[in-house]
């Protein structure tokens, strides 16, 4: 493990905020960063018990951890999330923004009512990404990284994913812009775009035939695992300093 992934320039422990840290990919990212020696703030929206489990796993892996609740689309709550990280651990070096909502339906059947399912995705996946990114760019220390999340569905173009893909397309569009806005601060901004990954969010409502078909879409012939995605995040959070403004598709070669 390289020192750049575990310690800041003064040798102190690096600190990561992982939004959606109680979920499948978020949990894997939190645990991997903990294993790399990070102090991790495990963010959750509504399940403190599950966030506590993740924090305990981070501690067991050799990291330090705390939990914090926030609505990622609420400016004041996100500011408090970062302030809590600074109070607890002294600063923030890496932000991994995995928080997201996915509601699937053909567009003509989608809940487009004000405040409905599509609005919920827009609020969390687009506004939330903007709010978290803004706070990250204000606070992340030099040598740090912001990692947002898109999806390989933006390339795979599968039916029922139109609204969800639209929200993640926004993340891809903002990524190189934010990287340029961070110029001069030694902070990288990238996005990770997982392919079909065996998380509760992905598996919910899918039958075995659908899961098997999606697993066969890449040359490796399986679904991704949360740990596969966490490896990419660990690279961007640590040694991958020359990767900036990019969307990294982590999908086993699906196209």
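Sequence proposed for the structure above (255 residues):
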């Amino acid at each position: 493990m390289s020192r750049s992934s575990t310690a800041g320039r003064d040798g102190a422990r690096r600190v990561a905020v992982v939004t959606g840290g109680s979920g499948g990919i978020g949990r894997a990212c939190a645990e991997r960063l903990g294993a790399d020696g990070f102090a991790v703030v495990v963010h959750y929206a509504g399940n403190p018990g599950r966030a506590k489990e993740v924090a305990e796993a981070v501690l067991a892996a050799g990291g330090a951890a705390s939990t914090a609740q926030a609505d990622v689309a609420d400016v004041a709550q996100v500011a408090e999330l970062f302030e809590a990280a600074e109070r607890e651990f002294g600063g923030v070096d890496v932000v991994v923004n995995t928080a997201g909502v996915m509601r699937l339906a053909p567009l003509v059947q989608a809940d487009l009512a004000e405040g409905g399912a599509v609005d919920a995705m827009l609020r969390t996946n687009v506004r939330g990404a903007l709010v978290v990114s803004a706070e990250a760019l204000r606070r992340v220390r030099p040598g740090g990284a912001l990692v947002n999340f898109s999806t390989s569905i933006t390339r795979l173009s599968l039916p029922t994913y139109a609204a969800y893909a639209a929200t993640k397309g926004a993340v891809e569009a903002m990524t190189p812009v934010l990287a340029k806005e961070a110029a001069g601060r030694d902070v990288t901004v990238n996005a990770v775009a997982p392919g079909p990954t065996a998380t509760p969010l992905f598996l919910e409502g899918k039958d075995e035939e659908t899961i098997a078909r999606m697993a066969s879409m890449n040359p490796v012939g399986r679904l991704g695992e949360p740990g596969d995605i966490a490896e990419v995040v660990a690279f961007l959070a640590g040694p991958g300093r020359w990767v900036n403004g990019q969307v990294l598709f982590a999908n086993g070669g699906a196209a």
